[in-house]
Hints:
Layout: E1 7-17, E2 24-29, E3 37-51, E4 57-62, E5 71-75, E6 84-86, E7 98-99, E8 103-109, E9 118-129
Antiparallel strand pairs: 1-9, 2-8, 3-6, 3-7, 3-9, 4-5, 4-8
Amino acid sequence: MSYSNPIVITYALGEFDFGGGSAEALAIRAPAGYENGRIIDIGVSVSEVFLTGLTNGHVQVGTSGDADAYAKLVVPSGQADASYCNTQVDTDAIINADVDSTELEVILTNGTDSGTVSGKGHVSITIAWF
């Protein structure tokens, strides 16, 4: 496979309630024949306003041994319904864009506060595999 001709896949992980419940762990596997990749973008299409105080909801992309080896997108409190939070909002979300694993672990984590917490959004991760 070639760096100049990657296969680009956007993984739509569905809606997650960043304001309640518990963290969710998911996995992404490289397509057959591909062993390396590059994270292009991580995004949350907000479907319920994010209100947090102590910690913000976030999306981590890593390995089973290092949850944020590749990325940690933090969705800041105040993100409005129908907005889109991605690596242009959290500019240091991508920690190491170059993926050297055929299986990635994705952890979706709730925000916290001493009072009311809210926030829902549809999560997507775009990776160029080569």
